[in-house]
TrEMBL record:
CDD domains: Wzt_C-like. SUPFAM superfamilies: P-loop containing nucleoside triphosphate hydrolases. This is Wzt C-terminal domain-containing protein. The lineage of its organism: Bacteria, Candidatus Desantisiibacteriota. Residues 145-262 form the Wzt C-terminal domain. It comes from Candidatus Desantisbacteria bacterium CG_4_9_14_3_um_filter_40_11. It holds the Pfam family Wzt_C.
């Protein structure tokens, strides 16, 4: 308690809860609660810091702060036990890694080796369709479940891959045990190494919170054009209550293979990194 009192201002500043300091913690959203919990734990100079999925909350700036703080703790000679599905963060932060599947150790070794093994053995689907049964999920709330997905082109035909700069529809089948209101639907794109490429949700694009009726429901996630460099990507999908947590969250559970579009004049150089996103460009030379 004395240590928390001494570092109170640092903790509040790190957790970014200054505006809510007089609000009872029981009224905090799940994201605020996790940010505060991490800030307290990280500032108490523990010999062992256990961090479980803290990067699932907060914006990119807060996640960067968390990674920086964990790095500082490790550099001081203390131990960080980092639990995450974010492969990019694991590779950048950890020297050694353990892959646990269904309560058993599947692999252990250097972080880079285990991550490569993970992506080489976790097969999702290469047919453009997939079932979510048996995949790990995060659930804070009951009454809703993602069941399956299918990839569609602009003509609503099933496709096994997407094409650069072409439209794509991810059609997700769900089941709700009851009517749900005030929900937020989110999709995050990751590259083949687990690095975040894009984060979006219904609120971020200006949509009102959504309502889902009881029974089986179909959700279409529409991308008018995919400006992603041809490669293998994975997509997370989540339905959450604005402030109470997740109804269902499947991390990197949808596999999308993006291939070159031969109807496009844009070509990519293979054998070298092209990044992840195409930014339109023109060259003008004046003499």
């Amino acid at each position: 308690r004395d240590e928390i009192t001494r570092k109170f201002d640092e903790i509040v500043d790190f957790a970014e809860v200054e505006k809510f300091i007089d609000t009872p913690v029981k009224r905090y959203s799940s994201g605020m609660y996790v940010r505060l919990a991490f800030a307290v734990a990280a500032h108490l100079d523990p010999e062992i810091l256990v961090v479980d999925e803290v990067l699932a909350v907060g914006d990119a700036a807060f996640q960067k702060k968390c990674l920086g703080k964990m790095g500082d703790v490790a550099k001081e000679g203390r131990t960080v036990l980092f639990v995450s599905h974010n492969m990019g963060a694991i590779q950048s932060l950890c020297h050694s890694c353990i892959w646990i599947e269904k309560g058993s150790i599947r692999d252990k070794g250097s972080a880079n080796e285990v991550v490569r093994h993970y992506f080489g053995n976790v097969t999702l689907s290469n047919s453009g369709t997939g079932l979510f049964s048996g995949l790990p999920r995060k659930r804070d709330l009951t009454g809703f479940e993602f069941l399956s997905y299918v990839l569609l082109d602009s003509h609503a035909q099933i496709v096994s891959f997407a094409q650069f700069n072409n439209p794509l529809i991810i059609r997700v089948t769900c089941h709700a045990d009851r009517n749900i209101s005030g929900a937020v639907l989110a999709v995050n794109w990751f590259d083949e190494n687990g690095n975040l490429v894009n984060r979006a949700n219904t609120r971020s694009i200006g949509m009102a919170d959504i309502e889902i009726g009881q029974g089986n429901v179909t959700v279409d996630v529409l991308f008018p054009a995919l400006p992603l460099i041809p490669n293998l990507y994975r997509v997370s999908i989540a339905l959450q209550d604005g402030g109470k947590g997740y109804y269902d969250w499947l991390d990197q559970a949808i596999e999308v293979n993006i291939k070159e579009n031969h109807n496009s004049p844009i070509r990519f150089i293979y054998g070298q990194s092209n990044g992840t996103t195409w930014i339109p460009v023109d060259f003008q030379i004046h003499t």
